[in-house]
Amino acid sequence: MVGPTTYFDESTVDRLDARTADLVRRRAAALGPAYRLFYREPLEFVRGERAHLFDADGVDYLDAYNNVPSVGHANPRVVAAIAEQAARLNTHTRYLSEATVAYAERLLATMPMPGEVMFTCTGSEANDLALRVAKAATGGEGVIVSWNAYHGITTEIAGISPSLVGLDGMAPWARAARGPVTDVPFAEAVAASLRELDAAGIRPAALIVDTVFASDGGFPDLEGLVEAVAAVRAAGGLFIADEVQPGFGRLGHGMWGFSRYGIEPDIVTMGKPMANGHPVAAMVARPDVLAPFGRDMRYFNTYGGNSVSIAAASATLDVLEDEQLIENARIVGGRLADGIRGLSDERILAVRGAGLFLGVDLVDEAFTLDVVNALRDRRVLLAASGPGNTTLKIRPPLVFDDADVDRLLTELAAVLASS
Amino acid sequence: MVGPTTYFDESTVDRLDARTADLVRRRAAALGPAYRLFYREPLEFVRGERAHLFDADGVDYLDAYNNVPSVGHANPRVVAAIAEQAARLNTHTRYLSEATVAYAERLLATMPMPGEVMFTCTGSEANDLALRVAKAATGGEGVIVSWNAYHGITTEIAGISPSLVGLDGMAPWARAARGPVTDVPFAEAVAASLRELDAAGIRPAALIVDTVFASDGGFPDLEGLVEAVAAVRAAGGLFIADEVQPGFGRLGHGMWGFSRYGIEPDIVTMGKPMANGHPVAAMVARPDVLAPFGRDMRYFNTYGGNSVSIAAASATLDVLEDEQLIENARIVGGRLADGIRGLSDERILAVRGAGLFLGVDLVDEAFTLDVVNALRDRRVLLAASGPGNTTLKIRPPLVFDDADVDRLLTELAAVLASS
């Protein structure tokens, strides 16, 4: 599944300056072939601040790509929380911790349904756990995902990630619904997948979707999702909202992508921006959904929910609230989307998205990759996405401000003018 | 699989003081049923230093259990490295990083074979990746583990962890060899598992063992392991050394548990003490073993090998080397083992282990659980382990010193005298 992408082509290493070429070669020798570097000319950063990354020469790059440092690179409040807690204690969930319980309660208060939290370290682990829980709760095994879904990298989760392993590489109990990247309405696509599972004698356990459909190109308000969820539930399956991409306010309205639909998920998973880059993730499940798994199975994630992770996650949530970053995502993201539309370039086919998650459909893949690399050369970071690599993915830290928007628009206009 | 253990029984919550009972109840409501608390009377700590944990009243507990904070709770050099790097930059492996490459090179220099590193966040993720790599490299699917193995919590890895899911819960392609906890020699046990796989038409992909067999009760120098590895290789499978428990010097001689055998593993996984509690883990594989996976698959672990993780792991390795903690584990662990043998209590059946990983076999499960809880009441932390919960697991931070040994021996003697 490694096609033409925005990744560096290692056969071109000789084109790089001597120091960079040496580091790339050492990296290839030490880290092996499954790793990728961004861009035709790779970058190395040494410092970050708000939505800006700086290289060793102090050159300022505008970060319109990285969603993990959501409250800003090296956010001082999060850094202080990590440093203070690490200096006191970092221990696990088999001892009591007031802070861990308090953070879990705070997280649950953002959910529309009753729930219980389980902490993991990565979104992959959270999704992997969600499938274990859903299978135990339903007695079913079948899992339905979107056509170009990406949910993570464990064996189980790679098997439900067609964007990573291809349709042929999917697990035998998994089905990719033909949406939302086709003309098939999503509810129909999921209904067809349910019929496929039924024909194969596989009982459905869950429909799991990234509620902004990031790897499908970005669809924050997908028609038919509510109906698809209802059909899966009628067939005995659960609905898992994968909030790793849209969660924690990225879409500029509410904390979670599913809240745009008025859906109450059975299970919610979250990760990336949860602690601004510290390795923290979690799963929330309705108590009755979690009960069968909890009755039969113990679960201990050594680092999951440890003292420093909780301190980092709590501080990140503090900043998100105190600096009203969800509202900022809505306002600044709206300005950015309007500005891109205002460029009125016929090679821009559509500007989709919500808040600070924007997908900009361009005319073809080669052009998209050229734009991404030309922007990199003009010190603006973003990426290509979608099944055909024809969508610019714009997904900056939520502290993106008006000056950042202006700079992105200026550089994008310049790239379009010279392409 | 949740039998009588050293975990807290939530039906006894009313016995606790009001504040603790309230926190336990809130915790149960927020975190759900799959979580466990240690001890008949749970503990909450607020500070740690070297091999000591302190509660809110400043009471000092001797930590003879936690192997994760290997270079000492809240080690100041590791804390400083985390704080400094977090304040500068925390980013991922798709940008170049001199520090990440340098740490990988340093790790590879500890291996007896050529290798390439892939970073994950947890030992579970590292083992999950190792199986993906082994299956891609061999074209086989069968995995052999020890009789009471524990390798982690993803769906794939739970399926090779009989101590977690029971023999009945294992994956259909996995087999538990009847050793080392039975009288069957390990090489014979693995040979029998190979025959079982062959009879089922399953090609072997790997034998994976925790090289100190921690969940089996602790066997650092197991007879027959070398022969078992040779037999698996002859059948087309690989050998994966799971170093999550013994790795980074715990056994007091060399960095890795496998080095006691003169074996060159095909794949090595590591985690827990790697960054003293910061969520970092890794897999090292021979380049030819990794090549098929790397050719067909990209792998991106969002937090894996990020800037702060690498800073934490590098500082931990610095302290391990500068303070000669492997040598300390050998000397202090030897004193501790001798001291326990010197207690000459007939209810102590055997003292096994190496360095600061000791398994003390006691006469039966009830007695073992009583000893663990009585030690907790005397401010010494350890746990019960092994298939029948009849082994005291002693596994302190590697900074354990002579005074810590004396205190543990004094308290253990007192508990034995009054039991």
From TrEMBL, chains A, B:
Signal peptide: none annotated. It comes from the Bacteria. Gene3D superfamilies: Aspartate Aminotransferase, domain 1, Type I PLP-dependent aspartate aminotransferase-like (Major domain). Keywords: Aminotransferase, Pyridoxal phosphate, Transferase. It holds the Pfam family Aminotran_3. One of its GO terms (molecular function) is transaminase activity. Belongs to the class-III pyridoxal-phosphate-dependent aminotransferase family. This is Aspartate aminotransferase family protein. It comes from Pseudolysinimonas yzui. The lineage of its organism: Bacteria, Bacillati, Actinomycetota, Actinomycetes, Micrococcales.
